[in-house]
Input
Amino acid sequence: MSVEADIINRFFKKKTSAPLGIGDDAALINKNTKEYWALSQDTLNVNTHFLPSTPALDLGWKALAVNVSDIYAMGGQPKYALVSIAINKHNIPWLEDFSRGLHQCAKKYGVEIIGGDTTRGQTSISITIIGSVEKKKVLKRSGAKLHDDIWITGQIGLAALGLDCLKKKITLSEAAAKLAIKCLYKPSPTDIQSLQKYQLFHSAIDISDGVIADLSHILTSSNLSANIFCAQLPVSAWIKKEKAFDYALYGGDDYQLLLTASAKNRNRIKKLAAQKRLKITHVGQVTNEKKMMVFDPNGKPMKIVNKGFKHFVK
Ligand code: ADP
Ligand code: MG
Output
């Protein structure tokens, strides 16, 4: 267990009267007989979650986008947000850009900003998001079923590639680098409600810490295991060519969704996704084996390492 999970479990996890408390992408409270309110909060701290050089407009966008993905991961529709910012100086051009990025993201995802807090300190943005979820469409981490297909939306590994480009650890073509850095700075969560309206999925999580770490959360909550096939992962041409699958398996910050669904719905999901122009890829299966297995493009099992992002290293 990570130190963060240990802290949460030891000091904060208590019994709750809410239908769903700590431990999922969002908590759920009753809205009416048919719907829940889904509430979640994600924070971006300078140097931990973003480089000080991050353009303010992108930061404003990202601070909200990383919350939107948590509501989508519950099968819900984001509605309202409370925005808490700490900044160390009254920098008008920075605030103009930051708020523009924030409002652009809010408009794109249909979110209204209804409150927040403004304080002085090391740059940090913490957003509480509130979404609405139909009870029969709700997606919990604990919902995966044995033999489910595992699906991933969009492309993964791109944000981590972007970070390595910025750190000059790798060199990509100009166009590929631009796309990867855009994914890092301006993540675009995928809304799967157009598919989930048919209740096709059983569980979901947003991929903030890489496929292995986030899939593990679903598997732990559902008491199951999984096989993942690298050849099927929706990754860039560069990752495929270099066989650099670690970017997708262990790289964070993509904010795409990982979902599970009954294998009997595979063709329906593919067909509907094509109709809706939604990119979603079947990448593996839920199993009841002892441990998760990841297979390289030749079908050979790969060693799984515990590399997901950790705030506190033991
Ligand atoms: P996510 O990656 O989806 O944002 P986290 O890993 O940050 O989720 O958190 C895991 C769970 O623990 C979530 O349900 C979150 O609400 C809860 N949590 C995290 N930190 C705290 C805290 N300090 N107090 C109470 N609950 C917390
Ligand atoms: Mg999440």
